[in-house]
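Appendix B. One record, verbatim.
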Amino acid sequence: EHYAEETYFGVYSRRFGQKLRSARRRIDLLRSYQPTGRLLDIGCGLGDTLIAAREAGYDASGLDIGAYPVQHCQELGFEVRQASVTDTGLAAESFDLVTMWDVLEHIPRTADGLREVARVLKPGGVLGLIVPSGGYLRACLFRNTYQNYRGLWARTHFVYHNSRTLSRVLVSCGLQPLPFPLVHRGALC
C-alpha cells in the first residue's frame, strides 16, 4: 500500500510529506545494511518511518510514549505499543532493525535506552540512529531558553552527544558503531 506524500489525516500537509520523503531516504540507506526483516521504530510519532518501512518490504512496528501517536499508527494498520524506550516490554532479540530518529536526546540516561535497544535487537541487527549535534554548547547550557531546531524549545532535550561521546556509550551498551548514523549489534573483538 502506498501513502500519498501530501496527505495527513486527509488534509494537505507539506510537513508530513517532507517527513515521509526523509523517512524513505533513511530506509533506503538502511536497506544496504539490513535489506529485510522486522523493524521497530522507536518514537514512531505519526508513522512516517513506519509507512516508508512497509513500502520497502519490512515488517514494521512502532513504539511511542504518547497515546495519540500510538492510536494514530494503529489506525494506519501498524502494530504499535505505548511504552518507554527504557522499558519496551518487547521480547529479547526480536528485531532485525531498530530506528531512533531524534529520540535519544529525550532520554535522561542514554545508556538505559541503548541497553534496551541492544536487548531487543537480534545478533547482527542494525540500529539506525540520528541525534542532534552535541556541538550546540548554547543548547546544552541554556536548554530552557535556547531556540533552535526550527524555533522549538530544547528544554525536553536532556542529553547531547558528539560522535565521540555517542560512540563511547554505544560500545558500553554492546553496540558496534558503523558508518554514522548506523550501528550494529554484535560481539566486539
